[in-house]
């Protein structure tokens, strides 16, 4: 998954300053991934990502100490290949006779190199490996079996199988399932390395038999499974083991191309095998050279008067370029001295060269040539050289077991690296994205905090104002309302006393008027207190307040109040509550003062998205002034304008008056602030 990260210039500047404070462990993690400040800050807050990147870095550095995996395809002697064209009975197999019983340690299978037209390296899909001491495998024991599972090709790397440590002379690999590449049950291997329990090779030069082999002279043959040649190159260490030592290169003449390399073991030794590493020429990028034809002799005398031949490369010339060591199994023969003789030089243009990169002479599990000084002889010249036995070529030469083990370990490390890198990329992208958004939010909060402080102060002031408003309302209700109530009671009592003593007169009428005014003032005070309260009442609450007001103002008139709105539970804004109630109260005052009505009808109902308040009376109509204007409804018009509503006034002398206010419900229920009267 890919993430498109948001880059904020201001944020990047701020994060750049922050990265200067990062711990060294975080700042050093995966430099390529932490060049941008967002990436570095992301790692500051994500320890898991830092740990993963540290693990990746450690694994990458460990690869430098492991043998290099670099396929160098062979041109000949590729290995063993099997398959059949018909329904041949039985499964293909290949068997190795090690020549003697050895405690079985480990087995390494080397995949064959991919051929033109092949989709893969033809590594066996399912197979079984058995070990036995008897040639007929009557005492066979299973070392490895794929069972019903398909083997995954190691991709050119060695596949390691663990032995059981028990003695075995014969090793057999049976193909349970192969590929279909024109042949049935097709499979191929480049090499089979068998090691004893002490981790020394025992399969070089072993006798190999097989069934259903596809033999091509010089290309495919069972005997190529034990010649030590693989497409994996030389047995050398990783990049960290690079050296300048390459071995010995002697220039000879065409007339006298003979060269000898003589080893003195100091005492008699029986050499089992000779391993010759090619000499790497600077003029050739990659392959190395060895003498085209050689023979190996041992002797007890330094003049080789009793020389005995123990190995030879044959009459045919060796390949002109080698990418693998040359393993020469020797015949059993004891001797103190060993001589490698070459009668034919390798030609490079007009130059004739005799060259070797390294010589290993193995007796059992010991390299008897290690650290020896070798005498190189040509045309009577004899000069010593130690670079042929110092254990280094272009890189440090490894024991064959260590080399194969390091290749297996490299495959495991690279597999872990692949998984960790995928995880690291995902974690880094997510962390950087989260950091980007987190930084953007932090940057936004930097600007919003002052606004929040101002808003909080405004809300505190508003809260204090509300408290003051409630206190004033409470004082009006308690003090002034109480005083008005006391005036009303005193006036009523004085009026009653005067009527008993003196009878009705003007004074008692005045006291009655005082009582009425005091009572009405006290009721009006309640309406003012209700309007001062900062709470959002519903339409139902407003209707109840309208009923109370009508009961006070229309006590001498027959009236009815009908609410048919379906939104009685909807909340009204503070301004809407105030202006609707004052509109209604003003309409009732006009009826009481001017209409002389005997019947009043008040209706509230819905018309689509509007709330309609209708006040109807049967009075004499509204008084008209100059130009036929109804001055009594001016304040009512102002209320309707503030509510952004529509007011219809129907009034004719002697036929009563109808006031119809229509307001959009959104203007009453919305949170937008309406202007005060």
Automatic annotation (TrEMBL):
What keywords is this UniProt entry annotated with? Kinase, Signal, Transferase, Two-component regulatory system
GO MF annotation list: kinase activity
Q: Which Pfam families does the record cross-reference, listed alphabetically?
A: HATPase_c (PF02518), HisKA_3 (PF07730)
Looking at the record, the residues that make up the Histidine kinase/HSP90-like ATPase domain are 578-665
Keyword Iron-sulfur listed? The answer is no
The record's listing under InterPro entries reads: HATPase_C_sf, HATPase_dom, Sensor_HK_TwoCompSys, Sig_transdc_His_kin_sub3_dim/P
Signal transduction histidine kinase subgroup 3 dimerisation and phosphoacceptor domain sequence ranges:
469-534
Keyword set includes Cell membrane: no
The signal peptide annotation in the UniProt record is 1-28
For this protein, the record's PANTHER family field holds:
NITRATE/NITRITE SENSOR PROTEIN NARX-RELATED
The identity of this protein, by name, is: Histidine kinase
Q: Which species expresses this protein natively?
A: Luteolibacter flavescens
């Amino acid at each position: 998954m890919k993430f498109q990260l948001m880059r904020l210039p201001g944020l990047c500047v701020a994060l750049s300053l922050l990265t200067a404070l990062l711990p060294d462990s975080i700042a050093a993690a995966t430099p390529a991934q932490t060049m941008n400040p967002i990436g570095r800050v992301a790692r500051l807050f994500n320890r898991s990502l830092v740990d993963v990147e540290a693990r990746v870095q450690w694994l990458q550095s460990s690869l430098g100490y492991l043998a290099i995996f670099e396929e160098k395809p062979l041109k000949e002697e590729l290995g063993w290949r099997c398959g059949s064209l018909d329904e041949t009975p039985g499964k293909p197999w290949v068997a190795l006779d090690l020549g003697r019983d050895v405690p079985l340690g480990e087995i390494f299978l080397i995949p064959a190199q991919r051929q033109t037209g092949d989709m893969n390296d033809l590594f066996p899909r399912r197979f079984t490996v058995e070990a036995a001491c008897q040639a007929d495998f009557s005492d066979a024991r299973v070392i490895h079996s794929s069972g019903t599972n398909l083997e995954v090709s190691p991709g050119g790397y060695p596949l390691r199988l663990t032995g059981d440590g028990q003695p075995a002379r014969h090793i057999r690999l049976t193909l349970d399932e192969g590929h279909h590449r024109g042949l049935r049950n097709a499979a191929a291997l480049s090499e089979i390395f068998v090691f004893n329990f002490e981790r020394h090779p025992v399969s070089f030069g072993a006798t190999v038999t097989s069934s259903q082999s596809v033999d091509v002279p010089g290309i495919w043959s069972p005997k190529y499974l034990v010649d030590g040649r693989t497409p994996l190159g030389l047995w050398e260490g990783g990049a960290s083991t690079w050296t300048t030592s390459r071995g010995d290169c002697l220039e000879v003449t065409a007339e006298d191309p003979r060269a000898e390399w003589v080893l003195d073991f100091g005492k008699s030794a029986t050499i089992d095998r000779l391993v010759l590493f090619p000499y790497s020429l600077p003029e050739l990028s990659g392959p190395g050279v060895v003498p085209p034809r050689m023979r190996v002799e041992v002797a007890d005398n330094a003049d080789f008067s009793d020389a005995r031949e123990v190995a030879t490369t044959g009459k045919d010339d060796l390949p002109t370029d080698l990418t693998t060591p040359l393993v020469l199994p020797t015949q059993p023969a004891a001797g103190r001295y060993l001589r490698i003789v070459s009668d034919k030089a390798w030609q490079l243009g007009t130059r004739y060269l005799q060259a070797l990169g390294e010589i290993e002479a193995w007796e059992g599990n010991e390299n008897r040539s290690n650290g020896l000084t070798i005498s190189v002889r040509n045309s009577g010249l004899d000069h010593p050289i130690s670079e042929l036995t110092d254990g280094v070529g272009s890189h440090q030469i490894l024991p064959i077991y260590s080399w194969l083990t390091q290749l297996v370990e490299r495959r495991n490390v690279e597999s872990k690296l692949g998984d960790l890198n995928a995880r690291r990329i995902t974690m880094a992208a997510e962390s950087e994205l989260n950091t980007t958004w987190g930084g953007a939010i932090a940057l936004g909060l930097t600007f919003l905090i002052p606004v929040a402080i101002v808003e909080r102060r405004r809300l505190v002031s508003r809260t204090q104002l509300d408290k003051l408003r409630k206190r004033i309302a409470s004082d009006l209700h308690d003090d002034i309302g109480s005083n008005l109530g006391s005036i009303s009671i005193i006036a009523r009592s004085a009026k009653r006393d005067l009527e008993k003593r003196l009878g009705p007169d003007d004074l008692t009428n005045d006291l009655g008027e005082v009582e009425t005014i005091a009572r009405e003032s006290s009721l009006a005070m309640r309406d003012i207190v209700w309007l001062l309260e900062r709470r959002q009442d519903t339409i139902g609450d407003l209707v109840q307040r309208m009923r109370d007001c009508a009961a006070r103002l229309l006590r001498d008139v027959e009236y009815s109040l009908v609410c048919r709105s379906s939104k009685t539970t909807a909340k009204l804004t503070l301004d809407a509550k105030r202006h609707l109630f004052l509109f209604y109260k003003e309409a009732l005052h006009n009826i009481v003062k001017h209409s002389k009505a005997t019947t009043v009808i008040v209706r509230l109902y819905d018309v689509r998205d509007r709330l309609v308040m209708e006040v109807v009376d049967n009075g004499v109509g509204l008084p008209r002034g100059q130009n036929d204007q109804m001055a009594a409804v001016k304040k009512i018009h102002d209320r309707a304008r503030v509510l952004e509503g529509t007011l219809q006034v129907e009034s004719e002398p002697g036929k009563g008056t109808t006031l119809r206010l229509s307001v959009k419900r959104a203007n009453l229920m919305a949170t937008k602030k309406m202007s005060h009267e």
